[in-house]
């Protein structure tokens, strides 16, 4: 179980790295406002919030620690 | 704001810091369960220095969103925190490591070269960074107070000295020994809170209240074309920068000396790592959330000349009022000072352990280094501050915060291949690490440090402009121009990649020493090696007098600390040092680790080696031995099991053997007796036959006598043989009874008749008292007659020689026919009564000749009677002699089977 | 005339031996058990004893031992005649000082030969 969780963690890292670098990020790379907030900025901040949420969730799982 | 007021506030702030630290020391705050994880996470936030507070805004104001890259890197690293940092923490704890230089030195064979190189590298990379903090304090002070300079009192200098004092007191409290630095860590955590609070409050007040909300700010900025580019990552170069910044800052969150210090060395509990995994990313998010709005606001609402680094302060000053400005000032102040405290501690430690100690520490039995060690550590710490201040004063004055920071990051990133390689790749070798770091460091120096140095000194303009040998792209400024990356990114990328390449290549083609591979194993497989095995690894195979170890420890750790640790060791392991003469390998290992804390792994090893003079066996050998002994133990266990089984089997075998021998004996005896019995008549027969043969002139009477004797002996022989065969049949159970309804009376009478002659001959009075109404019963006629004949003839044999009297009685008793044969002989003893039915048993009667019987008769009788389901026995008859009795059941309980006769 | 003492509890054997020896002009004394033998030995001294072993009271071994340890009797030759045929029996007999051991049933020819050998 622990191994699975750790793999998920690594996966999160990699996924978000991809999401935050080109070419994915270039999709949001426009000088425009989305809901009044710069698109890119909004994108990054939203991802960040989701990320924090994910980390909170995964570390709350009991098996996420050594015996 | 009034300068003096700010100074006073700063002094007050510093006092509060000292207070908090003192209180934390007293209350042992780091051991509090509830707050532990928070303090740990907040201490990691020391990552956010003045660069975060001021530099980020400056960068956002000039190049836009890419400022956030250096925070995304760390954020992305946190999911790996548990995997990576936990391993690091475990190693640090187990090997008693106190700095990243020691970590690498220990990993690569407890090698001093590596340690020194890393120490120098971090020194060069981080000192400017410290200078940067000092500069930030100075600059922010000027911004807030409106530029009043004090010639008699340089607040920057005073602050630096105060922070230095703080670090000395709370950082080097326990110079030898890794006791929790309650004061320092708590203060740092507190400052992280202040940073965050200040930023958030400042941000909310300014953006939400003053400027009407962030949306408004964004909308307004959108109107201005020159600001639009701040919303995006523009050219290719920016996206390259973006990626490399993320990568490098990802390394930085682990490898920066101050980060290594708080996340690994100061960690008290591995479980804290879990909380940090979401707390720190959250912190980083919160502290950055207002950066872009403020940067934009600054661009829009502040004069163009206003330095972008200090937009925050200036906006507060212009639009928020004194208290807000002060708040933000102290936010920045906290950011700067906390960075200084931890970094200087770390650097000072590395300086003393890896640069200074190797110059004068020598193995010696007598020299007491303990005071020198403490002094050196303190002086090293002070010199870091001096260096930092010097750098700030003479060199850093004109360089923007950001580039210093980035240069630092790129420098520290040179440790990444050797560090992470060493952590996960057993094959990572010392020479590889050395080569890699040297290459990376060299390129970094050339590309990033050199230009700054040169331009500050006003030299080498030509070189910078035109490059080496006229190749423009070799010029540090145009580095990577061909690739389209910014100079910085190019330098960082090339140095790292070259570093990695050389590291791997050299490691592959280099052989590791035993110690190296030992250490590699201990690092890479830390979680698989139990503490016990660990203690055995690198065994000092020597008998070291305990006192030698003790004096060694005293020489380096001092009396008090040595006393402490030895007491602790004794308590934990139940040893009485008064009785100890030799220190065992565990103790020596322990002593080595204690020394590592004080003087680093390389020196510690040298010192121990001077006393222990043992050859370290590689952990592989240990593992092999342990595996072997495990196998042996298992084998032993198996063997013991088999042995037990064998013992049991042997026991059973022995018992069976004994029984067999007994049977064999019995059988032998039987055979022997039988053959003996057979031989006797044979002897007579033969002798007589031979006599007859030889003597032709024998008188007829004699001849007849011999012949009849021969015949008689033959009969005897035959009888014996028959008896034996009979008995054998009975014994083997192959005898079968021919059961018919018979009249017992008849059978007795018949037996009597058979012996009539003998009775008459011996003039024996025979008295038959047979009940007339004896019922019939199932009997084997011949056999019962045989029994009667036997008993009768015995009675006749043994009755009184003068007036022989034999009485036969027969009647019914309890469902049985009972027969008694009584003689008036000399009776029978109790012992004989038991034995008389045994095979070949012949009554020892001294007055008589040897009985003519074979001794089998009664045994056969017993078998016969038992086969009928009855019993036979003998007892003395009072006033007479001997009484033989047997019973035959009237109704056979069961058909006698073949196995009845035992 | 040489005297031979026959010690055996088996009448048929005694009879045979007696006849055999008398025919060969030996003087024959008879004892039907160990006790009788000892009595006879107390009164007269034969030249040779034909000694059975298995006897109810005093067995042949004891007689032999007695004879061979008595200074005035030990010159008497002893031939064991016994159905006891085990090697250990024979050894025992010889160890006790017997001059010969013949296993029953024996050949009368052999016996006479042995007797002559020992007596003459």
Condensed summary:
Chain B is mainly alpha-helical and 902 residues long. Chain B is built from 36 helices and eleven strands. The radius of gyration of chain C is 13 Å and the shape is globular.
Task: Tell me what you see in this structure.
Chain A is 61% helix and 6% strand. Chain A has helices at residues 2-20, 39-60; strands at residues 33-34, 37-38. Chain A has a two-stranded antiparallel sheet. In chain A, β1 and β2 form a beta hairpin. In chain A, α1 (2-20) runs antiparallel to α2. The radius of gyration of chain A is 15 Å and the shape is elongated. Chain A starts with a helix and ends in a 7-residue tail after the last helix. Chain B has 902 residues and is mostly helical. Chain B has four domains: 3-360 and 372-413, Sodium/glucose cotransporter, CATH 1.20.1730; 535-617, no CATH class; 622-732, Signal transduction histidine kinase, dimerisation/phosphotransfer (DHp) domain (Helix Hairpins, Orthogonal Bundle), CATH 1.10.287.130; 739-889, Histidine kinase-like ATPase, C-terminal domain (Heat Shock Protein 90, 2-Layer Sandwich). In chain B, β10 (872-876) and β11 form a beta hairpin. In chain B, α26 (546-557) runs parallel beside α28. The longest helix of chain B is centred in the C-terminal third of the chain and has 76 residues, at 619-694. The longest helix of chain C has 13 residues, at 11-23. Chain C is an alpha/beta fold and 120 residues long. Chain A binds chain B through residues 6, 9-10, 12-13, 16-17, 20-22, 25-26, 29-33, 36-41, 44-45, 48-49, 51-52, 55-56, 58-59, 64-66, and chain B through 65, 68, 72, 75-80, 82-83, 86, 214-215, 218-219, 222, 228-229, 231-233, 239, 242-243, 246, 270-271, 274-275, 277-278, 281-282, 285, 289, 292.
């Amino acid at each position: 179980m622990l191994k699975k969780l750790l793999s998920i963690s690594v996966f999160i890292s990699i996924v978000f790295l991809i999401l935050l670098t080109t070419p994915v990020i270039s999709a949001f790379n426009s000088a425009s406002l989305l809901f009044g907030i710069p698109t890119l900025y909004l994108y990054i901040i939203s991802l960040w919030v989701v990320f924090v949420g994910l980390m909170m969730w995964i570390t709350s799982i009991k098996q996420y620690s050594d015996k | 704001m009034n300068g003096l007021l700010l100074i006073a506030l700063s002094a007050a702030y510093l006092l509060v810091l000292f207070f908090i630290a003192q209180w934390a020391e007293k209350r042992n705050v780091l051991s509090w369960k509830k707050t532990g994880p928070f303090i740990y996470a907040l201490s990691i936030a020391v990552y956010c220095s003045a660069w975060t507070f001021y530099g980020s805004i400056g960068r956002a104001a000039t190049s836009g969103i890419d400022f956030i890259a250096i925070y995304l890197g760390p954020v992305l690293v946190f999911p790996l925190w548990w995997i990576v940092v936990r391993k690091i923490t475990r190693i640090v704890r187990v090997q008693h490591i106190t700095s990243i230089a020691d970590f690498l030195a220990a990993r690569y064979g407890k090698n001093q070269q590596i340690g020194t190189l890393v120490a120098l590298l971090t020194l060069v990379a981080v000192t400017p960074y410290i200078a940067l903090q000092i500069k930030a304090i100075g600059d922010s002070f000027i911004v807030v107070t409106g530029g009043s300079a004090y010639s008699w009192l340089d607040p920057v200098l005073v602050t630096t000295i105060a922070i230095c004092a703080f670090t000395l007191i709370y950082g080097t409290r326990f110079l030898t020994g890794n006791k929790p630095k309650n004061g320092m860590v708590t203060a740092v955590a507190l400052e992280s809170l202040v940073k965050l609070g200040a930023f958030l409050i400042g941000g909310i007040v300014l953006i939400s209240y003053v400027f009407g909300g962030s949306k408004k700010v964004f909308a307004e900025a959108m109107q201005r074309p020159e600001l639009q580019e701040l919303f995006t990552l523009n050219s290719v170069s920016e996206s390259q920068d973006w990626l490399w910044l993320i990568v490098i800052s990802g390394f930085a969150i682990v490898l920066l000396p101050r980060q290594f210090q708080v996340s690994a060395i100061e960690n008290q509990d591995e479980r804290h790592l879990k909380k940090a995994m979401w707390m720190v990313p959250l912190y980083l998010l919160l502290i950055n959330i207002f950066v872009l709005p403020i940067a934009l606001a600054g661009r829009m609402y502040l004069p163009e000349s206003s330095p972008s680094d200090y937009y925050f302060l200036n906006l507060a000053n212009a639009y928020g009022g004194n208290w807000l400005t002060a708040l933000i000032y102290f936010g920045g102040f906290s950011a700067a000072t906390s960075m200084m405290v931890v970094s200087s501690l770390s650097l000072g430690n590395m300086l003393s352990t890896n640069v200074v100690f190797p110059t004068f520490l020598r193995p010696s039995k007598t020299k007491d280094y303990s005071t020198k060690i403490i002094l050196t550590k303190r002086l090293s710490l002070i010199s870091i501050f001096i260096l930092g201040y010097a750098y700030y004063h003479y060199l850093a004055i004109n360089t923007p915060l950001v580039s210093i920071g980035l240069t630092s990051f790129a420098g520290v990133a040179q440790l990444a291949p050797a560090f992470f390689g060493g952590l996960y790749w057993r094959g990572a070798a010392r020479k590889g690490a050395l080569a890699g770091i040297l290459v990376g460091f060299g390129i970094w120096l050339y590309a990033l440090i050199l230009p700054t140095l040169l331009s500050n000194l006003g030299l080498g303009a030509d070189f910078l402009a035109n490059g080496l040998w006229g190749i423009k792209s070799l010029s540090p400024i145009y580095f990577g121009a061909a690739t389209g990356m910014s100079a910085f990114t190019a330098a960082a990328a090339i140095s790292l990649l070259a570093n990695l390449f050389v590291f791997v290549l050299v490691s592959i083609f280099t052989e590791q020493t035993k110690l190296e591979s030992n250490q590699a194993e201990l690092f890479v497989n830390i979680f698989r090696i139990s503490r016990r095995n660990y203690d055995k690894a690198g065994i000092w195979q020597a008998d070291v007098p305990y006192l030698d170890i003790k004096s060694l420890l005293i020489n380096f750790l001092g009396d008090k600390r040595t006393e402490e640790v030895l007491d602790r060791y004794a308590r934990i392991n139940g040893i009485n040092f008064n009785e100890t003469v030799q220190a065992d390998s565990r103790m020596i290992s322990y002593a080595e680790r204690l020394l590592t804390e004080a003087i680093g792994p390389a020196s510690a090893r040298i010192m121990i080696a001077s006393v222990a003079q043992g050859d370290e066996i590689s952990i592989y050998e240990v593992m092999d031995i342990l595996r072997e002994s495990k196998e042996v133990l298992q084998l032993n266990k198996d063997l013991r099991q088999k042995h037990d089984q064998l013992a049991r089997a042997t026991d059973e075998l022995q018992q069976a053997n004994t029984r067999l021998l007994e049977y064999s004996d019995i059988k032998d005896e039987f055979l022997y007796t039988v053959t003996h019995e057979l031989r006797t008549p044979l002897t007579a027969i033969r002798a007589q036959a031979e006599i007859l043969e030889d003597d032709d002139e024998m008188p007829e009477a004699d001849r007849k006598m011999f012949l009849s004797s021969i015949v008689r002996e033959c009969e005897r022989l035959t009888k014996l043989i028959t008896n034996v065969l009979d008995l054998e049949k009975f014994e083997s159970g192959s005898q079968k009874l021919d059961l018919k309804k018979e009249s017992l009376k008849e059978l007795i009478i018949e037996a009597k008749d058979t012996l009539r002659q003998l009775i008459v001959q011996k003039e024996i009075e025979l008295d038959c008292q047979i009940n007339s109404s004896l019922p019939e019963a199932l009997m084997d006629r011949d056999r019962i007659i045989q029994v009667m004949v036997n008993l009768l003839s015995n009675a006749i044999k043994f009755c009184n020689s003068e007036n022989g009297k034999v009485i036969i009685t027969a009647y019914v008793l309890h469902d049985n026919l009972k027969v008694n044969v009584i003689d008036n002989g000399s009776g029978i003893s109790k012992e004989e009564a038991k034995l008389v039915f045994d095979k070949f048993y012949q009554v020892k009667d001294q007055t008589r000749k040897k009985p003519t019987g074979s001794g089998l008769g009664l045994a056969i009788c017993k078998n016969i009677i038992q086969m009928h389901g009855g019993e036979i026995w003998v007892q003395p008859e009072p006033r007479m002699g001997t009484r033989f009795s047997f019973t035959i059941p009237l109704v056979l309980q069961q058909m006698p089977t073949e196995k009845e006769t035992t | 005339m040489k005297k031979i003492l026959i010690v055996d509890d088996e009448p048929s054997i005694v009879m045979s031996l007696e006849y055999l020896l008398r025919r060969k002009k030996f003087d024959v004394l008879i004892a039907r058990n160990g006790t009788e033998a000892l009595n006879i030995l107390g009164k007269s001294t034969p030249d040779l004893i034909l000694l059975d072993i298995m006897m109810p009271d005093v067995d042949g071994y004891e007689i032999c031992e007695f004879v061979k340890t008595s200074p005035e009797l030990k010159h008497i030759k002893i031939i064991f005649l016994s159905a006891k045929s085990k090697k250990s029996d024979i050894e025992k007999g010889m160890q006790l000082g017997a001059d010969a051991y013949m296993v029953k049933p024996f050949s009368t020819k052999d016996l006479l030969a042995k007797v002559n050998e020992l007596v003459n």
